[in-house]
Recover the amino acids of this structure.
């Protein structure tokens, strides 16, 4: 249990350092910048993109009940699993799916996982929100 807490702490520190490094060493090369277009139902008050609750709400807003798979059917075995019940290999499996998605499919994949009642591991969920948040910021700028 202590080893898991230490590993999670190390991952958070490394992730934060990499995020800060990325933010302050942007060389202005826009060729790698991609956008994630959210296909959510637009509400009367649009999300400003400055709060994490906006990202959480917009990813699951307007969920239709049609199942859509992103070549990730193997994740269905995690239906009903708690977010803290994943081992390192399982977390890496989710991370691999997330990082191999096309940028325009990320929001749809998040909706697909929610419709399928798969709870993402905490680490992967946080990475997903960071990716969506960064995409929104790049859309504004």
């Amino acid at each position: 249990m202590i080893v898991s807490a230490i590993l999670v702490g190390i991952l958070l520190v490394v992730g934060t350092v990499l995020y800060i490094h990325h933010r302050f060493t942007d060389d202005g090369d826009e060729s790698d910048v991609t956008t994630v277009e959210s296909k959510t139902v637009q509400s009367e008050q649009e999300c400003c993109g400055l709060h994490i609750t906006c990202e959480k709400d917009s990813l699951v807003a307007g969920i239709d009940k049609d199942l859509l798979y992103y070549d990730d059917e193997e994740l269905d075995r995690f239906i009903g699993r708690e977010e803290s019940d994943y081992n390192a290999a399982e977390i890496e499996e989710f991370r691999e799916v997330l990082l191999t998605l096309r940028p325009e499919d990320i929001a749809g994949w998040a909706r697909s996982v929610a419709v399928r009642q798969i709870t993402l591991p905490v680490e992967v969920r946080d990475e997903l929100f960071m990716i969506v948040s960064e995409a929104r910021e790049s859309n504004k700028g």
